[in-house]
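For the sake of transparency, this paper describes our internal protein records without simplification. Such a record has a labelled line for the sequence and another for the backbone structure tokens. Nothing more is needed to write down the fold, since each code stands for a local backbone conformation. For reference, a complete record is included directly beneath this paragraph.
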Amino acid sequence: MFSGVHGMLNRGQKIKGTVVLMRKNVLDINSLTSVGGVIGSGLDILGSTVDNLTAFLGRSVSLQLISSTKADANGKGKLGKETFLEGVITSLPTLGAGQSAFKIHFEWDDDFGIPGAFYIKNFMQTEFFLVSLILEDIPNHGTIYFVCNSWIYNAKHFKNDRIFFANTPYLPSETPAPLAQYREEELKNLRGDGTGERKEWERIYDYDVYNDLGDPDKGEKHTRPVLGGSETHPYPRRCRTGRKPSKKDPNSESRTSDIYLPRDEAFGHLKSSDFLVYGLKSVSQDVVPALQSVFFDLNFTPNEFDSFDEVHGLYDGGIKLPTNVLSKISPLPVLKEVFRTDGEQALKFPPPKVVQATKSAWMTDEEFAREMLAGVNPNVIRCLKVFPPPSKLDSQVYGDHTSKITKEHLEPNLEGLTVDQAIQKERLFILDHHDSIMPYLRRINSTSTKAYATRTILFLKDDGTLKPLVIELSLPHPDGDHHGAVSDIYLPAKEGVESSQWLLAKAYVIVNDSCYHQLVSHWLNTHAVIEPFVIATHRHLSFVHPIYKLLYPHYRDTMNINSLARGSLVNDGGIIEQTFLWGRYSMEMSSVLYKNWVFIEQSLPADLIKRGMAYADSASPHGVQLVIEDYPYAVDGLEIWDAIWIWVKDYVSLYYPSDEKLQQDSELQAWWKEIVEVGHGDKKDGKWPTMQACHELIEACTIIIWIASALHAAVNFGQYPYGGLVLNRPTLSRRFMPKKGTPEYDELVKSPQKAYLKTITPKFQTLIDLSVIEILSRHASDELYLGERDNPNWTSDSSALEAFKKFGNKLAEIEKKLSQRNNDEKLRNRRGPVQMPYTLLYPSSDEGLTFRGIPNSISI
């Protein structure tokens, strides 16, 4: 795009440049706040000038321009003279928080042509974060922007100099000849050679299986199966670290406190999620041990809540803890409030939205059902097509697991319909957590936890709300797996011990739903499945590739949060294993469920159709007709899905006027081939687009952006608003349903609240769980939301910028429309008995615990 620029001969001129960077001490989380340190002192450091900016002057940092129009004898773009930073720019309106700007001038003449890239070398011992370079007043051309956003380490660490390209997009075949070799060399550097242990300063993207979840060297109980690379335990690939194998198991990687990830994937921007994410480490390393010292000392407190009021006391007055314990865990980064009441210290949580209007509405059947459509896990419920509900478990291994629910259980509450009529009219729905847990239920119940496989059938009433009709609780047959299941059926009840049993039955359902949500809907189907796309994109799509520019914002911070999860959340003994029913089998069970994952079915319309919640209808606004019209997740989601699809279509069409153009794109074809055959290699024989047509690229990119933005937002940012009340979304069950004639049954009759609390998540695990999900449900201060970019000059293509502006305007219109829907009293599922308007798919948000907003990426 620089061709045709000639002009008159210029000699001895200089190009003015502005280099923007951030010093390490501004970005280094360890210098901002130590574990248990005071956040305020960290923020004071942000405004300080401890690291003198003059250290960057002299011969500390050099830049060398590379021509995009003039080649040397080897066909590579000419190199300009090595040039150094000259001085600090004290006032620049466009500077972001923590950023510093420097002047630089490059020698230039017509023989050099138009700059298209530059080398940079850091001769200091300390790394820094390079934000951008702007070149101004280039004769006959104007301004060129280089958006960098990368860590620059000392030059001695690299065999090849660090290179950055201007913001002009090119398909591989259209790259200016002088830049072609530079483009190929940079991709080769990012791929590495697949050997050796990765070092902190490296930027190498490579694949590995999940072989670092356990710690075999600590003993047998700390082993975990390798996930990925086998039919038994398939899994998406994660980033390769190259750590040495453990001593006792050569197939497992040894564990260290720090997990490598390519350096530019670490937080390189000043944001409060730095505190939030490292707060997760603090919970794991400090809060859990500190609380264990309290709750397993029976002289201090029993490990149970005594009443529902005591649970509500977590938000009303806090929980009193010994001062020495609070000093170890507080103040946690922007999380907990420590205060004094009657001279004592207490740990207090913010009230979750589910109790802000009423403390008891969560107990209603309507709310129980509504959260399947508008809660934190709204994409599991499906329309019931066959009765009784069948099982897909292998009958040769597990016997007959067909549901024991009968028509007689349902028909008294079908408003005059028979079961067959209700199915035909698409009025019956099921939340099925039977097959997902049954193969592991014996092992789970051999521990301190006690649970059931569950099926819940619901009826769509005339007013558009769902009514639960029956819950089936099933256990493996005592005579062996091949004998099938033993099941009990529970029906709704309003009073007496039957109502207490019904509330417990709903709790068993929600415990299963909580585990499925956290390990499958959230971790597996967003975090884990996206990481291979991040890796492949960096390995095969150059920075100047238009599809790289399209997708890159939707990868921000994902590999960082995933690496942290492998170290603190989903690992052996991690927070998930401690606080969720699936325990040590959590990741293994998510691997089994990955067998059902199909890329093209992650499209929202395809997902709705697969679950029977919609059917294709070209006459409908979004190409599908919903079976439940008032289905907030689907209604709002389809608006967002369409907006993303139109934006992607408009953008892709700028660069691929024909299928042939796409087929000839070597980088794109290599990218897709590696995603299918390596990144998701265990699923390579599934239904994947062939990437031979433009519509396939549009659909694939829309799915990637949907997963990373809206889908993640829908299943993540409601965690604390709904699950912050452990009564509403327990994560553990510890006792079976009390049977008549037992002391537990007598307790259920006399003290139903105590019986409920002794069954669900206990106090210690509740505090840990709340600490984590409150972090996960927060937005950072400088989060970037769908329709936003961190730099207005992310591309030089004015047509792409115009299409992106159109996308942003569309999202703003959608947000207004969603707000209006929430004010429509006829749409009862949008607020429910708890009076929580469904806002999770509002595109924008403020900072904090807002229950709304779609970040571009899986950044927390």
Q: What stands out?
A: The first strand starts at residue 13 and ends at 23.
